Amino acid sequence: MQQISRMLMKLFQRARSEKPGQVDPRAAEFTLSLLVAMYDRSGTGYVKTRSAAAALISLSGDTLLAKYRAFFQFYAVPDGKVTLITRSALRSLLTDLNQIPAIVGEGCTLSCVEIAIHDCFHGVLNAAIVEEKFLSWLRSEPAVLLWLPTCYRLSATEMVSHQARCR
């Protein structure tokens, strides 16, 4: 927890210097509280760095493709000259990401995750998939992660400005 807390302090300190007045001074504290609520429900005082990273990536203002690539980087494993994501790693990623909507009572069941894994690996004979197959599956907007592109689109529309006048 202390490692994540230090990282969040640095992250938000940099954000405050880049965008003065736009970042709440307690942002790191609030974010840590959210991460603890999502990933340490039993009060162990421990949150996996990878889980916290997945949450921060998904809640970031980056593009969907950048988020998807970052997920792959955090959860995939090197296999010789290529990097692959296994069924087990995908299960961990989906379980971690499912904690975000679950915090507001919108999470899906474990069977949802298993169906998504089966769908992602449909027609794949190997035990793992390459990044392009993973990205292609995510672009198809699987039901288990439908909240992610929806939230992205909502946040993207906040920046839209129409020069129309209404009567």
TrEMBL record:
Secretion signal, residue range per the UniProt entry: none
Q: Name one Pfam family in it.
A: EF-hand_3
Which GO cellular component does the record give, naming just one?
Answer: plasma membrane
Origin superkingdom: Eukaryota
Q: Which GO terms describe its biological process?
A: synaptic signaling
Q: Which residues form the EF-hand domain?
A: 65-154
Q: List the PANTHER family.
A: DYSTROTELIN, E3 UBIQUITIN-PROTEIN LIGASE KCMF1
This chain belongs to the protein called DYTN protein
Annotated organism of origin: Ptilorrhoa leucosticta
